[in-house]
Amino acid sequence: MTTQPFVFVALDYPNADAAWPLVEQLDATQCGVKVGKELFTAAGPEFVRKLVAQGFKVFLDLKFHDIPNTVAKAVRAAAELGVYMVNVHASGGERMLRAAHEALQDLPQRPLLIAVTVLTSMTEEDLHGVGLDVSVAEQVVRLAKLTQASGLDGVVCSAQEAEILQQQCGRDFALVTPGIRPAGSEQGDQRRIMTPADAAAQGIQYLVIGRPITQADDPALAVKQILSSLTA
Ligand SMILES: O=C(O)c1cc(=O)[nH]c(=O)n1[C@@H]1O[C@H](COP(=O)(O)O)[C@@H](O)[C@H]1O
């Protein structure tokens, strides 16, 4: 039996005022929220603190990718906001991953530290375009193993790679999967997608869902329908 995944609603809005009406309709006991580059750049740490104060599990998705010292300090600053999860790019390499992990160790309560493997918008052709002559699955597994060996809690990948990652990294290694698309919804720039129900059946721990909710006529209803599809 698989446990139902926890859903992070991606608050991909241009500012706090645009995001807040949806936040007000969400139940913090049923889902979390993700703050990414657009909203964080506009609304900043204050907005993240406000979400945390409202009781939301917050995934701060800033995908840090820099030299080890810079990423370690950035991850530490994110942790001090009280977020539940923070991410870095696994392709920053082992020393960067270890430095990020190390930076959180003395905190009484630390966020989950997750590394992005291959963005869900990318295909094998895109990997070839950046000089990586491997399949998506090979690259995802390679980066997930590096992430795990560096002490992190899990990876961002597509739900399509869940099975191979569960085989290669075990079921306790957290999988965070964007690229979730309910049947009939627009794919947009995502390439490696799966429906919420199919992703739930894979035993994935965390789903990230943005536009199928934020662009829906009734975003709050879209959240409810997605959550109920996970148990169906
Ligand atoms: O780290 C992420 O959250 C992330 C990684 C990835 O590989 N793909 C990906 O889509 N995301 C984020 O997940 C969200 C997906 O949004 P939608 O495509 O609108 O559902 C966006 O906020 C992305 O920034």
From TrEMBL:
Gene Ontology terms: cellular component: cytosol
GO terms of biological process kind: 'de novo' pyrimidine nucleobase biosynthetic process; 'de novo' UMP biosynthetic process
InterPro entries xref list: Aldolase_TIM, OMPdecase, OMPdecase_AS, OMPdecase_bac, OMPdeCOase_dom, RibuloseP-bd_barrel
Keywords, alphabetical: Decarboxylase, Lyase, Pyrimidine biosynthesis
Listed EC numbers: 4.1.1.23
Recorded catalytic activity of this chain's protein: orotidine 5'-phosphate + H(+) = UMP + CO2
Pathway noted in the entry: Pyrimidine metabolism; UMP biosynthesis via de novo pathway; UMP from orotate: step 2/2
A GO molecular-function annotation: orotidine-5'-phosphate decarboxylase activity
Residues that, per the record, bind substrate: 12, 34, 61-70, 120, 181, 190, 210-211
Catalytic-site annotation from UniProt: 61, 63, 66
SUPFAM superfamilies: Ribulose-phoshate binding barrel
Span of domain Orotidine 5'-phosphate decarboxylase: 6-226
PROSITE patterns: OMPDECASE
HAMAP family listed in its UniProt record: OMPdecase_type1_B
Subunit structure comment from the entry: Homodimer.
Stated family: Belongs to the OMP decarboxylase family. Type 1 subfamily.
Function: Catalyzes the decarboxylation of orotidine 5'-monophosphate (OMP) to uridine 5'-monophosphate (UMP).
Protein name (database record): Orotidine 5'-phosphate decarboxylase
Organism whose genome encodes this protein: Pseudidiomarina aquimaris
